[in-house]
Specification:
two-stranded antiparallel sheet, 13 helices, globular, binds fe (ii) ion, mainly alpha, single chain
Length: 483
């Protein structure tokens, strides 16, 4: 690994390890884009707190032993940089028709449109989540959580920079236009919405935020893993480094939900409540009842499944054949990495029943990635259920069936219970308030969302974390609030 790759160039406005100072054209394009980005951040980034000092980590190198530095920084002064994982010598295209050929350092002309589309879709999700979460600072349950929210937000901002760098460096004029469009679309906007459904949904409260970072950021993780396999080497290197940051986002989700469940169980125990489904009694304690947590989980998991697209997809097959988007852990899979004669079992609707049907593996790649995702999701469920059973309660959080509450793919036109039983419209309408959060549930959760800003203190509905960020003590002042 060469020294230049390891150190970020702070001599220009944009920290980077891609030698921007010698790449005047791209540097100029990025510097031209920068003011628009700062405007976007001030309009659509976190509401308030822009003058507060936040204890953030800033990526300054890609060295696995120390890529980030923690310090107090005002969010607008955060160094959004461009960092690519080091180039692997002699890397080859690891799958598809070009399997074994040297990885591309430039965009192959025939795949230009496909690559640009994938980069734009990934790029669009990054600012979208910041927009969705912008109001949450006002109701943070602690300074620790407030800091984690802002950490996620600035890093999603950096991920936007990462995608914009690729667009501006490798796609010329239309890349620059796409980069501008990424700042123009807005989550939930009627005229110019973000590209994917889940990124236009509201994130009304902190439980939604934790569910989002657990389930929706995890879709991001799966997509980044697939793109990290790309034969287009700059995309691969970009995504590999983004995954380093993404791990913290999912940590925030997983531990956030753990702490909510923990607090609920503690409060129920203390009050002598033996039935966790006695919603009114549990809510009276100022904590979120487990059935409502299950409903939020149902919502966010099903919205996130939609992000994987149709189970059977020729686009996915084309991207794989082209060597542009691979499978999760592609290089660790023991097969020919071409999939020309393989099949993969896909859940489909056959004569009104949910059945597994063997499809050509190439067209079933979305389904496969979604299956890998579901497996990855299960880990958190095990942890949360452990907390519940350790507290002595007979209640299990569960992932709903893939046919439940879907807007994309095989099951978009049918209704199913969380257990996967197909039901008619009337039954769905009668039962859905037991499965998905209602307005009343939302109002209750909203009533708990009161900011707690004293160092070391936490809202009634969430436990403190086991350890601090950067090993800081429990009463550490993660955000010095300046109003
Ligand atoms: Fe991201
Ligand atoms: Fe993320």
């Amino acid at each position: 690994m060469n020294v230049n790759i390891m150190n970020v160039d702070y001599s220009t406005k944009i920290p980077n390890n891609v030698n921007l100072s010698e790449d005047r054209q791209v540097l100029k394009a990025l510097e031209g884009w920068h003011p628009g980005y700062m405007n976007w951040w001030s309009d659509m980034g976190p509401e308030g707190f822009q003058q507060s000092l936040v204890y953030l980590r800033t990526a300054y190198s890609v060295d696995p032993r120390g890529w980030a530095k923690f310090d107090y920084v005002k969010m607008p002064d955060y160094r959004w940089g461009i960092l690519l994982a080091p180039q692997e010598e002699n890397r080859v295209v690891p799958f598809g028709e070009h399997y074994g050929e040297p990885a591309w350092q430039e965009v192959p002309g025939e795949y230009r449109a496909m690559l640009r589309r994938l980069i734009v879709i990934q790029g669009d999700t990054e600012p979208a989540s910041v927009e969705q979460q912008r109001h949450l600072g006002k109701t943070a349950p602690s300074l620790y959580d407030l800091r984690n929210l802002f950490q996620v937000n600035v890093e999603e901002g950096r991920h936007l920079w990462a995608m914009v760098y690729l667009l501006q460096k490798y796609f010329g004029r239309d890349g620059r236009e796409e980069a501008d469009e990424l700042l123009r679309r807005r989550s939930g906007d009627a005229d110019a919405p973000r590209m994917l459904g889940a990124f236009n949904e509201a994130t009304p409260d902190w439980l939604s935020f934790f569910m989002f970072t657990y389930f929706t950021d995890r879709d991001g993780k799966m997509q980044l893993h697939s793109l990290a396999q790309s034969g287009f080497d700059p995309l691969s290197r970009t995504c590999r480094f983004m995954l380093t940051e993404e791990a913290h986002h999912m940590f925030v989700g997983e531990t956030g939900i753990t702490r909510v469940v923990q607090r609920t169980c503690e409060a129920m125990k203390q009050a002598g409540i033996s039935d966790p489904t006695d919603v009114a009694r549990v809510r009276a304690l100022g904590v979120i009842d487990l059935p409502t947590i299950q409903k939020k989980l149902n919502l966010h998991y099903s919205l996130s499944l939609d992000l994987f697209g149709s189970e059977v997809s020729t686009n996915a097959a084309n991207a794989f054949n082209a060597g542009i988007k691979g499978r999760y852990h592609e290089t660790q899979i023991q097969d020919d990495h071409r999939l020309t004669n393989d099949t993969y079992p896909v859940l489909k609707l056959v004569n009104g029943e949910i059945k597994r049907v063997d499809e050509p593996a190439l067209t079933a790649l979305n389904m496969r990635l979604r299956d890998d995702y579901t497996q990855d999701c299960v880990k958190g469920l095990l942890r949360w259920n452990k907390v519940i059973s350790t507290a002595g309660y007979d209640f299990k959080l569960a992932l709903p069936n893939v046919a439940f509450h879907r807007a994309i793919g095989e099951f978009k036109d049918v209704h199913a219970t969380p257990e996967g039983v197909l039901i008619d419209d009337a039954t769905w309408n009668a039962k859905k308030s037991a499965w998905l959060p209602t307005n009343e549930d939302g109002d209750f959760i909203a009533s708990l969302m009161k900011p707690v800003t004293a160092a070391g203190e936490f809202a009634s509905w969430i436990s403190p974390p086991k350890v601090g960020i950067d090993n800081k003590p429990g009463d550490f002042e993660y955000v010095k609030i300046e109003t």
